[in-house]
Amino acid sequence: MNQFLFAIVLMISIGLLLWTFRRIQANFKRTKAVPFDSKIKERLNLTFKVAFGQTKILRKPIIGLLHALVFWGFIVITIGSLEMVVDGLTGLHRSFGVLGIVYDVISASGDVFAFVVLMGIMVFLFRRLALSIKRFKGIEVKTKNKLDANIALTFILLLMVSLIGMNSFDILLHEEGLAGIYPLSSIVASGLSDNNGVIAALFHFFWWLHILLIFAFANYLPYSKHFHVFMSVPNVFFSNLKPLTFLPSMPEVQKEVQLMMSGDAFNAPADEAPSRFGVKDVEDVSWKNYMDALTCTQCGRCTEVCPANITGKKLSPRKIFVDLRSRMDEKGKLKAEDSKALLGDYISKEELWACTTCNACAQECPLNISHPNLIMDMRRFLVLEEGSAPEELNTMFANIENNGAPWKYSPEDRLKWTEG
Amino acid sequence: MSKIDVPVMADIQAKGERAEYLFWVGCAGAFDKRYQKVTRSFAKILNEVGISYAVLGTEETCTGDPAKRAGNEMLFQMQAMQVIETLNAYQVKKVICTCPHCFNIIKNEYPELGGDYEVIHYSSFLQDLIDSGRINIKKEAFKNKNITFHDPCYLGRGNGIYDAPRKVIGAMDVNYKEMKRAKSFSLCCGAGGAQMFKEAEKGDSEVFEERTKDVLATGADIVATACPFCMTMLSDGLKFAGQEKKVVNMDLAELIAENMDL
Questions:
Q1: Is the reported ipTM for this assembly greater than 0.90?
Q2: Is A267 exposed, middle or buried (0-12, 13-18, 19+ CB in 10 A)?
Q3: Is B261 on the interface with A (CB under 8 A)?
């Protein structure tokens, strides 16, 4: 009976999750296909370093370490969650116990991590609820974003409480012969009553609470900024391997420039429908840009170091990706095209022109999101499609065109510096 | 100041000679009044050490970087194609840049368009010259001066070059002071991404003011830079703060040239 019930709950959870994923997949289909270089080995190295090694989040050593512990804890605890699924379907108890000493290691570290994660989450909640931390604020951080953060943290808090509860009552239930080692839950267990009927009921209660929370959390995540739980590792894997300040050239422009320079522009074969230059709306972003948007957990490390933001300009690198995700969500629900666009209705020109392309944001992002390149892709739309650069920049363009320098100097004077 | 002899590609080609390095001067290097002094300093060092190099002179043109960063990909690519054509015509193999923006774009973004060169930033080049003993640093010059270094974004975060400029400064007997935001944590001067050519958007303060505070907090006598735009911004910042008499903004090449009595 329990197995049957569990199978139904599991199928509903997976079904819901697949339904959500299909919607996200549809959003991905809207984005531009950008070729992906298959430097698998380099990418795996990067993933081990940045994702599993948490090297970039550790740039803030204290709070970074706390996050790293939560992350590493999640990995170990997930093994236990898988075991629960197997147990739930088969009716076995601690089925991974057959692994013997390996199971001792997994269960012991999982048990210790449950307490570490619990502690970490309490610190995170305290920071969000009681302290005033600048990077958690900003125009893009609305009440619902703050609520989202606190819901996700509460989920994890309850997940750990239920896990510890489950382990503790399991220890009491099987005084001898329980598979695995539980150094910290044993201490909790020793302080609990030993009324057998109550213990069994509470064990089952916490077991079900824990697994139901996992299913609920998994289904909540895709709608939350905490989707980074799913997206972070792949996002790092697919992230830029080139130097931070590498901005890819536009192949569609290269074609035109080559035609122009060969003097063959008018005899050129009519190409397929001309693509739009640069980024105006979600159809123009690459699949990787959208992946970045789904990965962003709005920690604000980017905005905190942005020179434009620090000096009170409107630009907030975090907002670029929050806006991209919101616009994609909005567009995904539309039956027919609307007249809105990412650039204009969500992101203003003023924000885009404030970027110094210093890449401090990209450097700081724990998950290798690239903000400046998307900002420059939107500048490309403004310049190449609308011709709406600030006037001084148009002057700079004209100087380069006429004199080969961004200032109005004659190319004949290029050696004047030697004269002193 | 006297004229310095600088070999020009077209001239040495006409003589049937070859230069090992192309010294890419850049627009700021050629035209910016303040930065011209840096270009002169670096050329004097090259002459003194006896490097086989040449400049393009009147054949040089903008790399297209400010256009590209401002979104004008069309103009960028036209400039880039022109530069690549010139460089390939001279069979250039190695390029030395003083400007980190030129350095970044030629090194990282020209290969996509058919320009493959070994591109060296002059800070790395100077470090090599010092390490290999081809430049003899006099310990006494700038002795006990407090010097700090401002990382250009396109050199440091962009291309991971943090040590070379510090080693160049450290070769002298100076008190090196690190700013609180340094290396990969460094704060931009405010000029990148074509900001150099426009007014900043509305805000509470200018980025260069913010960065100048970092400089002043070190108590440095000299703030060393390695980028023409950073130099403009920090020199402005020092003036803005009324500190230009107390704190001097010098380029790495100027420090070394002065150390060598050039």
A1: yes
A2: exposed
A3: no
